[in-house]
Give the backbone structure.
Amino acid sequence: MTQLNTTSTADEDRFAEIVQIIELTRRQTVLGVNSALVKLYFQLGAIISRRVAAAEWGDGVMTQLAAYIARTQRVLRGFTRANPFRMRQFCEAYAHDQKVSALPRQLPWTHNLIILSQNKWPEEREFYLRMAIQERRSSRTL
């Protein structure tokens, strides 16, 4: 009887190309999803920022927004009371810097939150964004 969990060097040689394509596609898919989420959070941050600036929304609205999303979009996660504030901060940090605004989309949301919260100056944020992208830093090493 053949065991399914054992792999030989011969199998690794024969199937390496297939496995590489699968892994590459998986990484590209994850990057695409992360990019789309970061873009979504930026767009939501822009709406929130605009409405707060126009005095249409106050801080209490964030609690109502989080509750509304939890009620109407049950499959979504990450829309706690704190996240709309973070989305707004994220948008306001990068909205006016064309050179840097594309960089956050190349990183997961957690990376962006870490960089944003620990670096006050735009130059610092740009440095850590670029470093995290180039060196493929994990959120723990950031």
Summary: The longest helix spans residues 9-53. The chain has a mean pLDDT of 87.
